[in-house]
Amino acid sequence: MKETISNNNKSLNILNKLILNGFYDGNISPNRIEFERKKFPPFFSVSNHRIIGTLNSENKYELGFEFKFPLNIAVKIAIGIGIIFSIISIAYRNWFLPIPFFIIPFLITFIDFELKKKKEISLLTSKFLELYKSEYET
Q1: CA–CA separation, 89 and 95 (whole Å)
Q2: Residue 45: pLDDT above 60?
Q3: Which of 7, 46, 110, 138 is deepest in the core (most CB within 10 A)?
Q4: C-alpha separations of 57 from 12, 31, 61 in Å
Q5: With bands split at pLDDT 50, 70 and 90, how would you rate the model's confidence at 74?
Q6: 92-121 pLDDT per residue, tens
Q7: Other CB atoms within 10 Å distance of the CB of residue 60
Q8: 3-state class of 3 per DSSP?
Q9: H or E segment at 111?
Q10: Domain range enclosing 44
């Protein structure tokens, strides 16, 4: 199930407050939102992920998660090289090489990405709901 945020004035106001209060860096456009969580202290940790919301046909932002610019290209290249390496290794009847060099690192990266995705989207939605309740349900 995809997490969604409605596209209305209340929601856009709360998303702007998330940026203004310093919880997130990002931008909001009419059919797309992008958020990157601020890390404290900023010089010790670097965030390589961002939350993307794209407007769907129901006028809601579907929240997704992806790597930021230089890392997203590097991951795609690494996966491509791993697949080619695995195919060549299997063609030469070396069945063991793809396991430690591609399959295990790919699974570790994928599982880590999915866990971070779940964590970051739940943090955004909990902050969003917290501000929504404090602003509009008094």
Answers
A1: 7
A2: no
A3: 7
A4: 18, 11, 9
A5: confident
A6: 888 787 777 778 888 888 888 888 889 888
A7: 18
A8: coil
A9: helix 104-136
A10: 4-136
Q: Which residues, in sequence order, are CB contacts of 17 under 8 Å at separation 6+?
A: 131, 135
Distance CA 118, CA 85 (A): 31
pTM: 0.76
Give 129-132 contacts, CB < 8 A, sequence gap 24+. Answer: 131/14, 131/17, 131/18, 132/10, 132/11, 132/14
The predicted-structure confidence for 11-26, as pLDDT tens digits, reads as follows 888 888 888 887 888 8
Place of tokens 């591609």: 102
* Count of beta carbons in the 10 Å neighbourhood of residue 24: 20
Exposed (0-12), middle (13-18) or buried (19+): which is 63, by Cβ within 10 Å?
buried
Nearest by Cα to 75 from 35, 83, 53: 83
